[in-house]
Amino acid sequence: MRLDGGVAHGGWCVGRHDELVVFVRHALPGELVVARVTEETKRFLRAEAVEVLEASPDRVQAPCPYAGPGLCGGCDWQHASLEAQRRLKGQVVSDQLRRIAGIEREVTVEELPGAPDGLGWRTRVRYAVDAQGRAGLRRHRSHEIEPIDSCRIAHPEVEALGVTRLPWPGVSEVEAVASTGGNRAVIAAPSASRLPEPPRPEASAAVLRRLKGGRTQAIRGKKGLREEAAGRQWRVSAGGFWQVHPAAADALVEAVLGALEPQEGQTALDLYCGAGLFAGALGEAVGLEGRVLGVEGGREAVRDAQYNLQDLPHVRIEGGDVEGRLREWADLRADIAVLDPPRAGAGRDVVEALASMRLERVAYVSCDPATLARDLATFEQNGFELKDLRAFDAFPMTHHVECMAVLTRKSKK
Fold first, then answer.
1. What's the pTM value of the predicted model, to 2 decimals?
2. How many helices (H) and strands (E) does the chain have?
3. Nearest Cα to 296, choosing from 322, 327, 277?
4. Which of 57, 185, 211, 355 has the largest CB neighbor count within 10 A?
5. Sign of CA dihedral 87, 121, 364, 297
């Protein structure tokens, strides 16, 4: 099969078989491959390249022995050079903007410092555990587990915990976390109601149990991790959200501040604010004469953000649903806003509520170009236009990419 249809969102290359589109993993655009079908629908096929007959000049030897057909599903592009990976990701973002939002824009994906070979960057890895108590990673689009000895994209401090070398009876998942502030945690999810005594990690770390609903409970050590970014230290609950690439938090803060150009005395919003990263940076920029209002749905994250920003009295963090808070703030005069929603995006109701406010600029941080494009289309329908977009390679070797879009209100003609 000749893969002459370019690249699709999700780490697929595109070809055709008779009248059906075929999405193929472990391939590169332009290659001639032998593909094994893994899923069949009436509209398309999914497949994986099991033999490469004519290779792309961008093809390299995958550094991980578990990257390949039928193996670990975590990395999509280990067989491509890093330059090619970034070029493909830029093409995907451009394609999603064009198809979903009708926006024509060439996108360049920027390298983040600290992982020049694309390995050893991931500071948070969630391992699945099989019936024998062995930790591994799931195969692509499967519940089957590939036992591994190590993960090549895991940060060395994550690898030092030895999760894949330890037995985990009675556990369904183990999450290993290494913070930029120098401490570590292991979070075990029991496969039944009771969690057996978990093994001691091979390096010093807090050990926690994951409860139903995502909350965590400390077994040994403290629940909080220490992160460092934007010139501050941050307390982040071990089970909470923080950028997994060590350089991503600083890069995104710099990008958001450059996009919003906050001025002293302004009012800023930080939606889906997590532990308060952007709220803190905006709080310092607008000064005591300004104010920042942050909204976060996770209880632990709200407590973390309030703790982290207690030295900034003009920054207020509230817990709750973003859409509900925006309805309450319908008459609020805010100048700028940043939102960093989960992968599902903000959605029409949130975008319309935000667009109805008298904002000058909006920075939208997203890890999914499809939902970003959908929401950008809604912004455009409600009086805003895309001014700029930056993309960052915050997830080397995978198809994921972090974007930051800048929106301004359309000028009246």
1. 0.96
2. 8, 22
3. 322
4. 185
5. positive
| Token pair listed for 44 | 């398309």
CA distance 303 to 224: 11
Are the C-beta atoms of 350 and 320 separated by less than 8 Å?
no
Chain centroid to Cα 329, Å, comes to: 28
Quote the tokens at residue 136: 């591994």
What is the rounded distance in angstroms from the CA atom of residue 324 to the CA atom of residue 296? 11
Cβ 78 vs Cβ 58: under 8 Å: no
Instruction: Give tens-digit pLDDT for 350-392.
Output: 999 999 998 999 999 999 999 999 999 999 999 999 999 999 9
- pLDDT per position as a tens digit, 130-149: 999 999 999 999 999 999 99
Q: How far apart are CA 321 and CA 349, in angstroms?
A: 12
> Are 383 and 393 contacting, i.e. CB atoms less than 8 angstroms apart?
no
Q: How many CB atoms lie within 10 A of CB 175?
A: 20
Spatial contact of 309 and 326, defined as CB atoms under 8 Å apart: no
Q: Looking at this protein, which amino acid is placed at residue 10?
A: G
The answer to whether the beta carbons of residues 372 and 352 sit under 8 Å apart is: no
142: its two tokens = 């499967």
The catalytic site residues sit at: 367
- What Å distances lie between residue 86 and 9, 26, 195, 277, CA to CA? 13, 16, 42, 26
Identify the bridge partners of residue 313 per DSSP, sorted by sequence position: none
- The answer to whether 274 touches 301, Cβ cutoff 8 Å, is yes
Nearest in space to 284 (alpha carbons), one of 360, 242, 231, 246: 231
